[in-house]
Amino acid sequence: MDKAISVKALTIAYGAATAISAVDLDIAKGKVTVLAGPNGCGKSTLLRAIRRLHQPKSGEIRLGDMPISGLKEKELARHIGLLAQSPSAPDDMSVEELVRLGRYPHQTMLQPWSAADADAIQAAMFGTGVSHLAERRLGSLSGGQLQRVWIAMVLAQETDIICLDEPVNHLDMAHQIDCLDLVGRLNREHGRTVVLVLHDLNLAARYADRLVFMKDGSMVADGAPVELMREALIEDVFGISCRVIEDPVHNRPLCIPIRNSSPRFGAAPAA
Amino acid sequence: MSIAARGLSPALARINRRAWMAVAIIALITVALALCGIGFGSTWIDPGRIVEILIGEGTRGERVVVLQLRAPRVAIAALAGGAMAVAGYLLQKVTRNELASPGVLGVIGGAGLGVVIFLALLSDESNSLVTSIVWQPVAAMIGASVAIAAVFLLSGQQASSAVRLLLFGIAVGAVAKAATLILMIVGPIYRTTQASRWLAGAVNEINWGEVQVVAIGLAIAMVGVVAVARRLPPTDLDEVSARGLGLNLPVFRILVFALASALTALAVAFAGGVGFIGLMAPHLARLIVGRPVLAGIAASFLLGAIMLIGADLIVRVLFAPTEVPAGTVTAVIGTPYFLYLVLRRGSTNG
Amino acid sequence: MPLASSNTSIRVPRRIGRHALFSGLAVLLLILMYLSLAIGYRLYSPAEIWRAVTAFDGSEAHVVIRDLRLPRALMAPLVGAALGIAGVLVQTLSRNRIASPDTLGLNAGAAFAVVMASGLFGVASLPGLSLAAAAGALATSLLVFGLAAAAGGISPLRIVLVGVTFAGLFDSFVNVVLTVNETMLDQLLFWLAGSFADRKLSLALNGLPFVLVGGGIAFYLARSLDILQTDDSTARGLGVPLGVVRGLSFVAVALLSGASVAMAGPVLFVGLVVPHAARALVGLEHRLQIVAAALVGAVYTTLADIVARFVIFPREAPVGAVTAIVGGCLLLLLLRRRAA
Fold it and tell me: Which of A88, A264, B19, B122 lies deepest, with the highest CB count within 10 Å?
C-alpha cells in the first residue's frame, strides 16, 4: 500500500484532558478514508492534527517520508488542503474572491499572481459546478451552493491530499449526497487522496474505501466498510443495537439502528 | 402595614418583610454617609454638630459652610444618584436586559444635547438666560426622551438583543455628543463654561435653588414610578404571556421609558453625566432585596445615593482642593463591572 | 478528463477599471487639497497661493497660506489615509464591520498615552509624543483583544462594547489629568477636540514616517489579510501564520492610529466609515482595499476639514465633531441593516 500519510503513536492533549491517545494510522494514497465515531471520540482532532492544527504531545505524523513538523506553513498547505468544520467568510465576499483565496500557498511576494493561479481557480470552479456563480455574493447562496464553493476553494489549493471536517453537517439530504458524490468524483477522476470526518455511519460506509472507527480518543478498528460494519462492533463503538443489511442499490453495508444500548442514555439509573 | 390583606402567602410576606428590613439598613448607611459627606472638607465637622447646625444652631461661619456649601452638594448627589439608579432599575426591568442603563442607552447624551440647545436658544446677547433655570431639567428631559425614542425606533425588532440595543444607544449617544460639541463652540463663553461644567458630571457649585428644582421634579416622578411599579412584575414575561395577564406591553414600555428619561434628565440636569450608577445600583439592589419591586426601587434609590455621595467624597479626599468630576470614580469602578457582564459567556444573546 | 474547459469566463482582476478609479480618486484629492488652501474665512486665488509657496513675502495672505492653510492641507489627507488603512486592518482582524480604532478604544488609548507622556513624564518632542500615542494604541488593542480572547472568543458586537467602554474610561482619565493640571488643559484641550487647524508643518512631517511604515506593513500583509477574513481553521489550513500576521497587523494599526492621534487628536469614526466605502469600490481583496482606503480616507478628511470651516461660519467646527456625526449615522445604518 502506498502511504500518503502515516500517523505514529500520536497523542494530543488539551491542557490536562487527553483528546486522542496513541493512535497509529496509515492513510492510503488515492483512497477515500473516513474517520467515524460518536461525538467527542477525537475524530476531528485527528483530522486537524494531520493538517498540523494541533501540536502533538507525543508521536509523529509523516507526509510520505517527511515529518510534517519540519515543513513550512505554506509548504504544508501545498500538500494538504483542509475544509474546516462550519467555515466562515464575509457575506459580501464574491464566490470568485473566496475561491481565489485557495491560491495563497502558491503565491509569493515576488510572484503574486500567475497564469497557473487563474487556471487553477477556473478549474476548481468548473469542477465543482459553481462557475456560473462567480460574481454572486456568499450571503446570497443556498447552503448546498455555499458548500460547493468552499470545496472549490480547497480544490484551487491543488493539493494531493484533501481533508474535510464534517462537510455535510448542515446540509439537507439531497445536498449531502450531492456534496459527497462530488468528493468521490474528485477522488476517482483526479486521484486526490481524501480524508473525511463524518458522523453519519451510513454515509461513511457508502463513500469510504477505508473506514476508521474511533472511540474515546483511541482507534478501535480500521478496514474496508464490509469488514467494519458488523453489528457487535457498531454496538460497541456507537452504543447502539442495530441490524446491518446490504444496501440493494450500492451493495454497501447499511446500518439500521434499533435502540440506544448505551448505559448513559438507557433506562433511569439505579440510584 | 397589612400584608395579609394584599393576599400574599406567608412565604412571600416573609420575603417582603426581609426586603424592607434590608432597605431600612441601607437607609441608615445612606444617612451616615451623607453626614460624613457634609462633615468632610477643609475643616472636619462631626456629625452631632452637623445635626445641631441643620436644626438652626451654630456660628455664622459654620452655617455658611454647612448650609450653603456642603449640604446642597451632598443633597444633589443623593437625589441625582438615586434618580439615576431608579431609572436604571426601570430600564433593566422593562427591557429584560441586565446591561441596560441610562448611560449606554444614549439617554445621558440626549439630555446633554437638550441642555446645550436650551442654553443656546434661550440666552440673550449679554449671555444671560431669558427664562428661568427651572426649565433646564425640562430641556434635558426632552432631549433624553428624544434620544431613547430614537434608540428604540431605530433598533426595532433588534431591541430584544441586549448587546444590539446597547450599540444603538452608543451610536445615538455619539451623534448627540458631536452635535453638543459643535453647539458649544457656536455659543458664547458663558454658555460654554456652563455646559462643559455640566458635561463633566460634577456636583460642586450647586445651590439650594437647583436642589429644590430636582427635589420637586423627583417627587412628582416618583409618584409615577410607584404607580407603574405595581405593574412591573409581568414584564419579566415575554410579550404574549404578558398580554395574557392583561398588560399591554408596548404601551406600558413607552410609559416606563418616559419615566426613566424624566428621572435621568432630573439627575443629569445639574449633576451632569455620571456613568454606571444606573447600571450598578439596580444590580446591587436586586442582589440584596431580591425580587420585590417596591423594595427593589427603594433600595436602588438609596444605593444610587450612596454611590454618588461616596464617589464625590472620594474625589474630594484624593484630589482636594482640585475639583475632579465624581463621574471619574464611578467610571473606574463601573468599567470592570460592565466588562465582566459583557464578557461573561452566554449571559445575554447577541 | 481535464477539470476545466478553458472557455468558461472567469474574469482575471480588472486592472484597468481599478487604475482609472484610483487615478480619479487621486485627482479628486489634489483638487480638494487645492481647495483646502484656497477657501475658508478668506478666499485666495491660485496665483496668490503659488506666490506664497514660491516667493514668500511675509504679507498676511502669505502667512495664512503658508503657515495655517498649507499644514492642514497636507495633514488632513495624511491622517485620513492612516485612519482609513487602520480601519481596514481592525475590521479584518476582528472580522467585524463596526470595528474601528474608535469603537475599539484605540484612539482614546492613544490620547490618554499622549496626555500621560506630556503631563507626567514631561515628554515634549514630537517623535516622543507620536511614539507614546502608538504605544497607547498598541497597549489598548492588546488589552481589548486579549480580554476578548480570554473570555473564550466573544461575538463581534461584544468586542465593540468592550472597546467603547475602555474608550469611556480613558476619556475620563484624560479629564482627571487635565483637571488636575490646568496649564496642560490650555495646551491640550484644542488638540483633544480633533482638528487639523493650528498645526505646525513639522507635526505632519513627523507623522509621515509612522504612516508610511504602518501602511507599508499593511500592504505587505495584504494577501494574508485576505485569508484572515475566513475562520481561523481555514486560514491556518491555507498556510497563514496567524500569530505573525496578527502581531504585525497590531503594530501597523498602532503606528497608524497613534500617528494620526498625535497629529490631529481623535478625529472620530474615520476608521469606521472609510473601509465601507473602500470595499464598495474595489471589493474585498486587501491589496486594492488598502490603497482605496488610503485614497478615500484622504479625500474624506480633507473634505470634512473644508466642510468644518463652513458648518457654523464664520467660526470653525472641530473636524472630529463633523466626522463623528457622519460616522454615528453610518453606525446606526449598519446596525439597522444588521451588517454586523
Answer: B19
Per-residue burial over B98-121, b = 16 or more CB atoms within 10 Å of its CB, e = otherwise? bbbbbbbbbbbbbbbbbbbbbbee
Contact C270, C83 (CB under 8 A): yes
d(CA A136, CA A225): 39
CB count within 10 Å of CB B293 equals 19
* Residue A63, amino acid: L
Q: Which residues contact C119 (CB under 8 A, 6 or more apart)?
A: C177, C181, C184
Find the CATH number of the domain harbouring A206.
3.40.50.300
- Closest alpha carbon to C262 in C71, C133, C137, C174: C133
Determine the pLDDT at residue C6.
Answer: 37
Q: Find residues 146-165 of chain C whose CB sits inside 8 Å of chain B.
A: 147-148, 150-152, 154-155, 157-158, 160-162, 164-165
Mean pLDDT of the region A122-147: 92
Does A163 reside within a domain? yes
A115 belongs to a structural domain: yes
The pTM score is 0.86
The model's pLDDT over A37-61, given as tens digits with 9 standing for 90+, comes to: 998 899 999 999 999 999 899 999 9
Residue contact C172–B328, C-beta within 8 A? yes
Encode pLDDT of B262-290 as tens digits: 998 888 877 776 778 999 999 999 999 98
Integer Cα distance of A112 and C290 in angstroms = 16
| Contact (CB<8Å) B178/C166 | no
Rg of the Cα atoms in chain B = 20
Provide the chain C residues 269-298 that lie in CB contact (below 8 A) with chain B. 269
Q: Which of A213-222, B207-216, B236-245, C316-325 has the highest mean pLDDT?
A: A213-222
Is the pLDDT at C114 greater than 80, yes or no? yes
Q: Give residue C12's pLDDT.
A: 40
Q: Is residue A265 part of a domain?
A: no
Say yes or no to pLDDT of C3 above 60.
no
Q: A214 lies in which domain range?
A: 3-260
Phi, psi of A35 (to 5 degrees): -95, 125
Measure CA of the first residue to CA of the last residue in chain C; give whole Å. Answer: 43
Q: What residues of chain B have any CB closer than 8 angstroms to a CB in chain C?
A: 154-156, 158, 163-164, 166-168, 170-172, 174-175, 177-179, 181-182, 185-186, 200, 275, 319, 322-325, 327-328, 331-332, 335, 338-339, 342-345, 350
Res C80 pLDDT > 90: yes
Segment B69-78 shows an average pLDDT of 88
Which pLDDT band, with edges at 50, 70 and 90, does B2 fall under? very low
Chain C residues in contact with A124 by the CB 8 A cut-off are: 3
Q: Which CATH superfamily is domain B9-343 in?
A: ABC transporter involved in vitamin B12 uptake, BtuC (1.10.3470.10)
B-chain CB neighbours of C180 within 8 Å are 319, 322, 324
Contact, B107 vs B148, CB < 8 A? yes
Other CB atoms closer than 10 Å to residue A69's CB: what's the count? 12
Rg (CA), chain A: 19
Q: Is the pLDDT of residue C289 over 80?
A: yes
CATH class of the domain defined by C83-336: mainly alpha
List the alpha helices (DSSP H) in C151-181. Answer: 156-180
- Cα separation, A120 vs C151, in Å, equals 40
Helices (H), chain A: 43-50, 73-79, 95-101, 115-127, 143-156, 173-190, 201-207, 225-228, 231-238
| C neighbour chains, 3+ CB pairs within 8 Å | A, B
